[in-house]
From TrEMBL:
Residues 103-178 form the DUF5641 domain. PANTHER family: GAG-LIKE PROTEIN (PTHR47331:SF1), PHD-TYPE DOMAIN-CONTAINING PROTEIN (PTHR47331). Pfam families: DUF5641 (PF18701), Peptidase_A17 (PF05380). InterPro entries: DUF5641, Retrotrans_Pao. It comes from the Eukaryota. This is DUF5641 domain-containing protein.
Amino acid sequence: MVPAKLILQEAWATEANWDLPLPDELQSRFSVWYHGLSCISQLKFERRIEQKKHFQEKENSVHGLQVVRGDDDVLRVKTRIIERDDDLSFLYPILLPSKHYLTECLIRRISFKKAKATCQELKVGDIVLIEMENKKRVMWPMGKIEKIYSSRDGASRVVRVRTSSGCLTRPIQKLYPLEVSTSGDPVLTLTTENRSRYGRLFKSSKK
């Protein structure tokens, strides 16, 4: 389109009347440019991403997204970032359907990280991790639920947990259930240690 723009500018500079013909040099250049337009239909460009007209997700949150399909046959979402030189995976993040295997794995992983006892039904005998704000997660003690205290409204908010160092009463928000239970695994037992108030361990007699 640049040659056509130059021809138009030069024609405007001649200040020729509408009814007067253009100079021969401009007419010949325009004819060459005009006949070259027929070659445009033969040009082929590889489309990196094409618009996908139909998407099977039925949720309302997906309908507003611009779903596209890349040359790798992967569904992506077109973002509004246009003035940054970023990677394709950032400009067009991959869109996974809700029933995709990777989507379900991600949901399970996130749910496990944010797993709270409030989201699960606790029962006596469950093994839980007890959150300690002043310790790292790997140092949290493990315990067994001995008793569940119910409030007046019938909801369970506090439990008594037995650990290796004694019994603790904790709110269920501080508990992280493990996928084990003493009812299903009779081998799993917790041993308690009897200590004095000074921390000295009492040893049982062998007699």
